[in-house]
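User: Hi! I have a protein structure encoded as tokens and I'd like to know what sequence might fold into it. I'm fairly new to this, so please keep things simple.
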């Protein structure tokens, strides 16, 4: 946030390999504001409908902890970058706007690793830009919290300021919990659960902490204002420290940084650069493409998926939005999940999917063959038409050829034909399967059914003639 150190992947970078004098708090060093981080923060603030402050101020937040090398954290408090926005969520009772209190910037701390005989600290993360989004206390159930957290993560990924990878710490949630008597407007004593790095952990931690508050209050006890950690393995929260108030941090303006003045023209350029936001895109997919609300929601959860869908639809205009959406949310999602990759990392292009959908739609490929082609294209990137021709997968739709195969099957199975004519209609399905098998699974099922029905009707009429 205040130096030139790169942000590195914690899973692959060696400890303390992306550090410098500034982010480790060496005496005599001076911070310099990262302009790109400010731009990213503006993108978030504007996407959340916040009012951007013409002037904001960085402050020193003073506290001691082993992963904080300076003994203070540079953050924003009294004069944040932006305030007063909202995020719309799909709550159980319908759409709901959750008010955003503030959006501000700060720097991250290092990371502690506790061993049997010692604690080790990695400062790679120290100084990494952090964007903090603080909501008002307007979430009244675990379901609303999940909807809010999901919508916020989706939005931040859409505007391109984070990968959203919670396992790598790209997003962390810190939940404040308080209970109040029914009918009361006064919030109870709150506890804060720090650094929740998965939706599962967050929801489990909230459920546990709400029940702990409830049981404590029912027994006549008092909730202590504390900062808590969540133990995923044991399924419980435990105290880390007493919850500080703002005065405990002794905030004062950072003397080595000037006030941050946001030029209105710059803010407007950032606003116009924002992509179509997920809720607007979801609504457009319903009105413009006629997609069901659920399909539109699934497709627009990830910007890359939504882009892929629209590109595939543009390349196959005759296929229809619902058919393309069905292939994306069905077979494509299945392949992505099995490969554990994102759509942009696969070898499947939107144009290739459009070709496969078109080949299946006009009968040149059976559904089974189309799925086979899709899987191969996904793995190799080979052009669908080339693959179809090389593997001889084109669907047989020639009526004369199919009628010949039907006649061969009927001639080869006289006993089954006799059973059908004797009043056993299910035998027709068995005969259909034999024709499909004889054609190597490549025959057009609709043409096969029509030809087989015609031949069986002719045999029935012939049997009825005197």
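Assistant: Happy to help. Inverse folding works backwards from shape to sequence: for each of the 466 positions I chose a residue that suits the local structure. Here it is:
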């Amino acid at each position: 946030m205040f130096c030139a150190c790169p942000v590195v992947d914690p899973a692959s970078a060696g400890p303390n390999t992306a550090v410098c004098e500034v982010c480790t708090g060496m005496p005599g060093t001076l911070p310099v504001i990262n302009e790109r981080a400010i731009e990213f923060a503006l993108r978030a603030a504007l996407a959340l409908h916040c009012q951007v402050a013409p002037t904001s101020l960085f402050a020193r937040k003073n506290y001691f902890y082993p992963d904080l090398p300076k003994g203070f954290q540079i953050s924003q408090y009294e004069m944040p970058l932006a305030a007063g926005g909202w995020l719309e969520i799909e709550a159980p009772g319908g759409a709901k706007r959750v008010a955003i209190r503030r959006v501000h910037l700060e720097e991250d701390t290092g990371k502690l690793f506790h061993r049997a005989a010692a604690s080790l600290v990695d400062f790679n993360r120290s100084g990494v830009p952090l964007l903090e989004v603080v909501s008002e206390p307007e979430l009244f159930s675990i379901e609303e919290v999940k909807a809010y957290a999901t919508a916020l993560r989706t939005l931040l990924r859409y505007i391109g300021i984070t990968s959203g990878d919670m396992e790598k710490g790209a997003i962390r949630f810190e939940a404040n919990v308080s209970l109040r008597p029914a009918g009361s407007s006064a919030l109870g004593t709150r506890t804060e659960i720090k650094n929740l790095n998965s939706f599962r952990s967050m929801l489990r931690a909230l459920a546990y902490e709400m029940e702990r508050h409830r049981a404590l209050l029912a027994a006549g006890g008092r909730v202590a204002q504390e900062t808590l950690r969540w133990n995923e393995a044991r399924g419980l929260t435990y105290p880390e420290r007493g919850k500080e108030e703002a005065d405990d941090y002794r905030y004062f303006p950072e003397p080595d940084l000037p006030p941050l003045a946001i030029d209105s023209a710059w803010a407007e350029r950032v606003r116009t650069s924002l992509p179509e936001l997920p809720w607007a895109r979801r609504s457009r997919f319903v009105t413009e493409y006629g997609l069901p609300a659920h399909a539109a929601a699934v497709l627009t959860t990830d910007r890359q998926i939504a882009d892929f869908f629209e590109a595939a639809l543009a390349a196959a205009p005759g296929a229809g939005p619902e058919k393309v959406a069905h292939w994306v949310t069905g077979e494509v999602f299945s392949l992505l999940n099995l490969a554990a990759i994102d759509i942009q990392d696969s070898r499947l292009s939107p144009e290739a999917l459009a070709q496969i959908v078109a080949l299946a739609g006009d009968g040149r490929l059976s559904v089974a063959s189309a799925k086979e082609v899709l899987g191969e294209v996904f793995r190799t990137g080979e052009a669908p038409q080339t693959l179809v021709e090389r593997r001889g997968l084109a669907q047989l739709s020639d009526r004369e050829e199919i009628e010949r195969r039907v006649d061969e099957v009927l001639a080869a199975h006289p006993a089954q034909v006799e059973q059908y004519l004797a009043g056993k209609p299910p035998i027709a399905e068995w005969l259909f399967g034999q024709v499909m098998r004889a054609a190597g699974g490549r025959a057009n099922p609709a043409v096969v059914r029509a030809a087989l029905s015609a031949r069986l009707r002719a045999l029935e009429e012939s049997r009825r003639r005197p």
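A useful reference point when you look it over: The mean pLDDT is 91. Feel free to ask if any position seems puzzling.
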